[in-house]
TrEMBL record:
<feature type="binding site">
    <location>
        <begin position="251"/>
        <end position="254"/>
    </location>
    <ligand>
        <name>substrate</name>
    </ligand>
</feature>
<dbReference type="GO" id="GO:0016811">
    <property type="term" value="F:hydrolase activity, acting on carbon-nitrogen (but not peptide) bonds, in linear amides"/>
</dbReference>
<dbReference type="InterPro" id="IPR000246">
    <property type="entry name" value="Peptidase_T2"/>
</dbReference>
<keyword id="KW-0645">Protease</keyword>
<feature type="site" description="Cleavage; by autolysis">
    <location>
        <begin position="222"/>
        <end position="223"/>
    </location>
</feature>
<dbReference type="GO" id="GO:0006508">
    <property type="term" value="P:proteolysis"/>
</dbReference>
<keyword id="KW-0378">Hydrolase</keyword>
<feature type="binding site">
    <location>
        <begin position="274"/>
        <end position="277"/>
    </location>
    <ligand>
        <name>substrate</name>
    </ligand>
</feature>
<feature type="active site" description="Nucleophile">
    <location>
        <position position="223"/>
    </location>
</feature>
<dbReference type="GO" id="GO:0008233">
    <property type="term" value="F:peptidase activity"/>
</dbReference>
<protein>
    <recommendedName>
        <fullName>Isoaspartyl peptidase</fullName>
    </recommendedName>
</protein>
<keyword id="KW-0068">Autocatalytic cleavage</keyword>
<dbReference type="InterPro" id="IPR029055">
    <property type="entry name" value="Ntn_hydrolases_N"/>
</dbReference>
<dbReference type="Pfam" id="PF01112">
    <property type="entry name" value="Asparaginase_2"/>
</dbReference>
Length: 358
């Protein structure tokens, strides 16, 4: 009797297991998807999350942001529509935002405590799991392009500071005088923070509180990012940033950390993050979303919600992500008041948002 019971339980166990496995989004099962799904493509971008509320925004500034988001996403969408790769779409879309003073990346990068601009970027190919990243560069006009160079033309994944700049020169990349990154607005933001910093330091001698406080209460994490799915079913993700205003000691955030600020894997999704980098590094946010899909079979939407609405706030951090999965489903999840964001699907339907609950 016992033996029969054991046999029955075992066969039930294997039956359940094999039916579950059919749902796993593995490469094999993906190939079997209908050609309709294989032809799908889409692109999502962000221009940073933070305390972005309508009351603090003028109509003209709101229009400027929306126009630039649209300009950027159309560049990537056209590449995808013409059969280009997700990697190319991500890079070229990010270039548009890097060249705009509106975002905290490239031209509009924020200032460090030493009144310099130190830029970080990373890029990942979901097909090969190749990746490239740069941190703390001061002379490279488009850091996302340098991340690509690191991935394509070096044996490494990440380069930092002077060495990365030397590599950029050797690769014939566009080098600019650090003055190129000066913008009045960003410089004023630094001065404001420094004033607050001084007061706080005088009050309680707590450097870290002074450093952290402005980040939480009135911060706009203006990092830019892009994720894309191309017609061949390949995913890519990229992120570019100036980091956080008033950063010191060569501080580096999540944006150039593969798995934290950027991650792409054809089996699951492509993710780019923006927010309080220290928490996104500790939460390994971008990879965690992918892992929840791969190991726990969560949908992209549920995985993104779990990480951004539960895990990161539980750690004490804030911010958001954009993501697209291997079927073209998307997520634009944030726990801040707003996040500059846009999505365009295969049909060219455009969805642009700035504030929460739009
Ligand atoms: N995540 C970036 C950092 O911590 C900041 C941002 O998203 O704007 O460097």
């Amino acid at each position: 009797m016992k033996k029969i019971f054991l046999l029955l339980s075992l066969s039930l166990f294997f039956a359940c297991n094999s039916s579950e496995e059919k749902e796993i989004p593995e490469e094999v099962s993906k190939e079997e998807l209908s050609s309709d799904i294989n032809d799908n493509f889409g692109i999502v971008i962000h221009g940073g999350a933070g305390t972005i509320v309508k009351e603090n925004m003028t109509d003209s500034l709101e229009k400027a942001y929306k126009d630039k988001l649209e300009e950027a996403i159309r560049v990537g969408h056209e590449i995808l529509a013409n059969g280009g790769t997700a990697m190319e779409a991500v890079q070229r879309t990010i270039n548009v935002m890097e060249d705009s003073p509106l975002f905290n990346a490239g031209k509009g990068a924020v200032f460090t405590n030493a009144e310099t601009n130190e830029l970080d970027a990373s890029l990942m190919d979901g097909k090969t799991l190749n990746a490239g990243a740069v941190a703390g560069v001061t002379t490279v006009k488009n850091p996302i392009n340098l991340a690509w160079e690191v991935m394509e033309n070096s044996e490494h994944v990440m380069m930092a500071g002077k060495g990365a700049e030397l590599f950029a020169e050797e690769r014939g990349m566009e080098i600019v005088d650090p003055e190129y990154f000066y913008t009045e607005n960003r410089f004023r933001s630094l001065q404001r923070l420094k004033e607050m910093d001084t007061e706080e330091t005088e009050l309680d001698h707590d450097q870290s509180a002074a450093f952290v406080d402005p980040f939480i209460k009135d911060s706009k994490y203006g990092t830019v990012g892009c994720v894309a799915l191309d017609k061949d079913g390949n995913l890519a993700a990229g992120t570019s940033t100036g980091g956080m205003t008033n950063k010191k000691w060569g501080r580096i955030g999540d944006a150039p950390i593969i798995g934290a600020g950027t991650y792409a894997n054809n089996k699951t999704c492509a993710v780019s993050a923006t927010g309080w980098g220290e928490f996104f590094i500790r939460g390994v946010v971008a990879h965690d979303i992918s892992a929840l899909m791969e190991y726990k079979r969560l949908s992209l939407e549920d995985a993104a919600e779990e990480v951004i609405q539960n895990k990161i706030p539980d750690l004490g951090g804030n911010g958001g992500i954009i993501a697209i999965d291997f079927q073209g489903n998307i997520a634009m999840e944030f726990n801040t008041a707003g996040m500059y964001r846009a999505h365009m699907n295969k049909n060219g339907d455009l969805d642009i948002g700035i504030y929460g609950a739009e």
